[in-house]
Design a protein that fits this description.
Number of strands: 8
Strand content: 15-25%
Radius of gyration: 17 Å
Bound molecules: phosphoenolpyruvate
Helix content: 40-55%
Largest sheet: 8 strands, parallel, barrel
CATH topology: TIM Barrel
Strand order of the largest sheet: 1-2-3-4-5-6-7-8
Shape: globular
CATH superfamily: Aldolase class I
CATH architecture: Alpha-Beta Barrel
CATH class: Alpha Beta
Length: about 250
């Protein structure tokens, strides 16, 4: 049985007030028992979020990390530092970082390794653009991204990776993949994993991301290969995020 994970990616949004609102809301929330929940605020709010969520079963995540553990990298944050703040998950390869900050598959792999090295669970984000989907390249693109990051890993490392399938055309657009579109790609990712190790493929957690909302979460999460959600916009509204958590039964 795979435990579902709902992870809220605040991107470059949020405030101390939002951190406090989450702390209060989750203190009162009766979440489903077999559910993992994580909040990924921007770096400056990590410590406040750690304190606000200390007594509730919500884990802390970060949105990126530098591939190095320390050194002359002005403005960057390492996995080792995130670990000190109690971070349990970190995104690697988010499409915004691939597009806006030109992160290549090689760099995504280096960040993934850095996270595994310090014992933080990476959430590897993969997904095709609209042009790639329209050209019929969805499966090639997604499996290339997955393969580039996972093929060189040791089995023990691969077992600690979560994959988020996020069609780029669905991120922040209000346009969601249909449950069938998402399921087809995620089944292909799991099938690809089976080539390495069928047991590992069955155990691997796969998240869907792309305009997931309180209205569409239940039907997405009901798909057999969708084990949770990476939620952007809707994770900034406490009630919506809680509703999505409750859909993951
Ligand atoms: C994301 O940022 O990973 C994301 C899925 O955003 P949104 O839910 O806003 O589409």
């Amino acid at each position: 049985m795979r435990t579902p994970l709902i992870a809220g990616n605040w991107k470059m949004n949020g405030s101390h007030a939002l951190v406090d609102a989450f702390g209060r809301a989750f203190a009162d929330a009766a979440l489903p028992e077999s559910l993992d929940v994580a909040v990924l605020p921007p770096f400056p709010y990590l410590d406040a979020a750690r304190r606000a969520l200390a007594d509730v079963s919500v884990q802390l995540g970060a949105q990126t990390l530098n591939p190095s553990h320390a050194g002359a990298h002005t403005g960057e944050v390492s996995g080792r530092m995130l670990k000190e703040f109690g971070v349990g998950y970190v995104l690697v390869g988010h499409s915004e970082r691939r597009a806006l900050y030109r992160e290549t598959d090689d760099e995504v792999y280096d960040r993934l390794l850095a996270a595994l090295d310090v014992g933080i669970q990476p959430i590897l984000c993969v997904g095709e653009t609209l042009e790639e989907r329209d050209a019929g390249h969805t499966f090639d693109v997604v499996l290339r991204q997955v393969g580039h990051a996972l093929a060189p890993l040791e089995p023990e490392q691969r077992a600690r990776v979560t994959i988020a399938y996020e069609p780029v055309w669905a991120i922040g657009t209000g346009r969601t993949a249909t449950p069938e579109q998402a399921q087809d790609v995620m089944a292909a990712i799991r099938e690809y994993q089976s080539g390495f190790d069928p047991d590992l493929a069955q155990a691997m957690r796969l998240l869907y991301g792309g305009s997931m909302s309180a209205a569409n979460a239940a039907e997405l999460l009901a798909q057999p290969d969708i084990d949770g959600g990476l939620v952007g916009g809707a994770s900034l509204k406490v009630d919506d995020f809680l509703a999505i958590c409750h859909s993951a039964r």
